[in-house]
Amino acid sequence: MTTGAHPPPVPARGHPADPPSDHALCTLAATPEAPTVMRRFAGAMARRWGLTGHTCESLALVVTELVTNAVRHSGSPVVTLRLSSGEGTLRAEVHDIGRWRHAPVPAQGPGDGYPRCGRGLALVRAHTTRTVARLTTTGTTMLAEFVTPADGAQSPPPPRTGLVTTPRRPHDPLL
What we know:
The chain is built from three helices and five strands; from the N terminus they run βααββαββ. It is an alpha+beta fold.
């Protein structure tokens, strides 16, 4: 669905010959509202597919980060989110049709020495089991994969490999 008004997206179903899996697709104008709308869409689809807990939380964070990057850095007029779930894996793909623009070096936050932005892809990698960037002449696709729990099992916590943690300070909500 492509729209500027952002009505609720309608999920697309996979081909009947596909292996058992669920699919959903949402295309919106690349506006500042798109990350919020797509995050809600992804959460609704994950719940429809019976996913809960850490999986839904990680999906929400990852979709927000990837869609925000597409909106802010690609120059694309639209952004597309494709979700699929099956065989123990949840996949989120964010695609734009723009040309990636390098962002200026992020400014540091007031008095804390940390940049205000620039941590998004590190967060994405920390919450997924696999992250792939595909840059082509027709745009960029970011793929993020998550392991999903078996039926009736509790969602596993997000993977922590590759993430360096530091003590959280009260004034820094991102750590």
